[in-house]
Write a structure and sequence with these properties.
Elements: H1 2-21, H2 27-44, H3 51-75, H4 85-102, H5 107-119, H6 123-136, H7 141-153, H8 158-171, H9 176-203, H10 214-217, H11 220-232, H12 236-246, H13 253-266, H14 271-286, H15 295-319, H16 323-338, H17 344-363, H18 369-381, H19 385-398, H20 403-415, H21 421-431, H22 438-451, H23 454-467, H24 470-488, H25 490-500, H26 508-520, H27 526-540, H28 545-557, H29 566-576, H30 581-593
Subcellular location: Nucleus, Nucleolus
Family: Belongs to the UTP6 family.
Domain U3 small nucleolar RNA-associated protein 6 homolog C-terminal: 307-577
């Protein structure tokens, strides 16, 4: 092994001598490079190879290349690249080849090699990398697409790109993304040939027997790809994706027409088809020149386009009366309403249209829970509070077991300061299953704190402790403790704390809150703090190291504390803590003793 490493280091000497001779590196730097290279070589020649060692070696060589590049730019020296950079590049490729040969399944390693080849313009090497990578990772369509794009866009070889796509489709005959990119590639090839032909015609060059195929120029190859894909891939999403690609090219009108006709014929009952056909009315209107139009005329034209879109949507919800179809219609209306416009008339018309569509969907019982939420928000933003209350009530009738819907209705009532908030809370608790009612109880007590008397709020807190599940009651205990301290003071909260401690479960924050309250008192008593810490440790002493450390700190820093108790607390902690927590506690306790914690 040592002989092999010595040989590899000797192979570096010519390039290092050149670096020193041309003034890019000093003799001291050359020696440092050799030392580092020797250390890295030893790591990758061991029996037990590690991927990290190869990555570190490659990164070092890449950094070296970058440094040489910067030094060349600084001193303006651009010669001897074959003797210097070429040697390093060859070594990096060799390292990548060894690494990818050893860890074939690591796609990120392959992609790093690809990125390196692209960065240093190693086209021949990259072609080999793609070939080897695709032989191993033929099950990943994204890699085939990457290789084909590189052939098409960098090497300008549409034949190679086509060959790669066809190979990829043998492995993935039903991959929509592969067909989309293959379709795009054929259109790019046709556009490239059209430009070439135009340039030859403008230059009046004689092409002899060579002729451009009219079928290829008109995108016939892309049409074949589309037809083949349509037979294998079902779904309107693919058709729309292909159509959006075709629209990027100005010679595909016939192809677009064919895709559109196929879309309407095969997927007439799909909401996405209708959604596309309706939105298309906006684009058709925008094709007309409006450069010399007045602002009023532009607003009028936009209103007409939107009306045409809505006419298609109205037809759609009649033909396909589903929840998804109404969702498409409402989404369109909301998008138009949220668009900025200086015309108040257009803004008002959009609002009226959106509210009307919401009402129609509601009357058809085809409005989803999420859309009811959006409708309510729109009504509140538009100051239509009475209608908002009506809609919220209707939503809870339809989704009576949905906690989110009840929350939504209650927030509307609270925001409008209605008298029937309590009645609505009672109704919500009755309908929603007890397991998920915590958000309703927290909302109720928060509202009661600012509205009702202390007695009513306290009764509500007591009721919530029995109505919620044991796990949820933990949160209510914390809120109850906090509210009692804010509203009734220390003595009341101390009695409440003792009372609440009779029923498990508890949270650590529940005890920490009481400890914090005690420490805020002018006559903070260590006796009380010990009681709270001891109660907390009974529940969390086996799983929380910080609680023990805080207890020790309290004994050390409190005026009434007893530092001699720290030893027994430490001993108890060592006995109670589980697993690795003991080691964690010991290290933190050591830091505390040395004054670093």
């Amino acid at each position: 092994m040592a002989e092999r490493i010595e040989q590899r280091l000797e192979d570096r000497i010519p390039e290092l001598e050149q670096l020193e001779r041309v003034g890019l590196f000093t003799h001291k730097e050359i020696r440092a490079v050799l030392r580092k290279a020797s250390a890295l070589e030893y790591k990758i020649q061991r029996r037990a190879l590690r991927k990290e060692d190869f990555i570190n070696y490659i990164q070092y060589e890449v950094n070296l290349l970058e440094l040489i590049k910067k030094r060349r730019a600084r001193i303006g020296y651009s010669f001897k690249k074959d003797e210097i950079e070429h040697s390093i590049l060859h070594r990096v490729h060799s390292l990548f080849n060894r690494a990818t040969g050893k860890w074939k399944d690591d796609v990120q390693l392959w992609l790093s090699h690809v990125a390196f080849c692209k960065q240093w313009n190693a086209k021949h090497q990259l072609s080999k990398v793609f070939s080897t990578m695709l032989a191993i990772h033929s099950n990943k369509p994204a890699l085939w697409i990457m290789a084909a794009k590189w052939e098409m866009e960098t090497r300008l070889s549409s034949e190679s790109a086509r060959h790669l796509f066809l190979r990829a489709l043998r492995f993935h005959p039903e991959c929509p993304k592969l067909y989309q990119e293959y379709f795009r590639m054929e259109l790019m090839h046709a556009e490239k040939q059209r430009k070439e032909k135009k340039e030859f015609e403008q230059a009046k060059m004689d092409l002899g027997e060579f002729n451009y195929s009219e079928e290829i120029l008109n995108g016939e190859m892309a049409r074949i790809v589309y037809r083949d894909a349509s037979q294998k891939i079902k779904g309107v999403e693919f058709q729309l994706a292909v159509l959006s690609i075709a629209k990027l090219f100005d010679f595909t009108q016939d192809l677009q027409k064919e895709i559109l006709e196929s879309l309407q014929a095969r997927y007439a009952d799909d909401p996405l088809t209708w959604d596309y056909m309706a939105r298309r009315e906006l684009e058709l209107g925008s094709l007309q020149p409006t450069e010399h139009s007045t602002k009023q005329k532009k607003v009028s034209e936009m209103a007409q386009r939107e009306e045409r879109c809505c006419a298609v949507f109205d037809e759609a919800v009649g033909a396909v009366p589903t929840e998804d179809m109404w969702k498409c219609y409402i989404t369109f209306c909301l998008e138009r309403y949220n668009r900025k416009t200086n015309s108040e008339e257009l803004k008002q018309k959009r609002l009226e249209r959106t509210l009307s569509v919401f009402s129609k969907a509601h009357e058809s019982n085809l409005l989803s829970e999420a859309l009811y939420k959006q409708w309510l928000q729109l009504l509140l933003d538009s100051s239509l509070s009475e209608k908002a209350v009506e809609v919220a009530e209707a939503a809870t009738r339809l989704f009576s077991q949905s906690m989110e819907t009840w929350q939504m209705r209650l927030r509307v009532l609270i925001q409008l300061k209605r008298d029937d908030v309590t009645q609505c809370f009672e109704e919500a608790i009755k309908h929603v299953k007890s397991k998920g009612t915590l958000p309703l109880w927290t909302l109720w007590v928060e509202w009661s704190e600012g509205t009702n008397s202390k007695e009513d709020t306290e009764a509500l807190y007591q009721r919530s402790l029995h109505a919620t599940t044991p796990v949820e009651s933990v949160t209510m205990k914390e809120m109850y403790l906090d509210w009692t301290y804010r509203s009734s003071g220390y003595k009341k909260v101390k009695r409440l704390f003792t009372s609440l401690c009779e029923n498990r479960p508890f949270s650590l924050d529940f005890f920490r809150k009481m400890i914090q309250i005690e420490k805020e008192q002018e006559s903070c008593k260590m006796l009380h703090l010990r009681e709270y810490y001891e109660r907390a440790l009974r529940e969390f002493g086996s799983t929380n190291t910080d609680l023990w450390l805080d207890y020790i700190k309290e004994e050390l820093s409190h005026p009434q504390g007893k530092p001699e108790n720290c030893g027994s607390i430490h001993w108890r902690a060592m006995k109670m803590l589980q697993g690795d927590l003991v080691e964690d506690f010991v290290s933190k306790y050591t830091l505390l003793q040395t004054g670093h914690l």
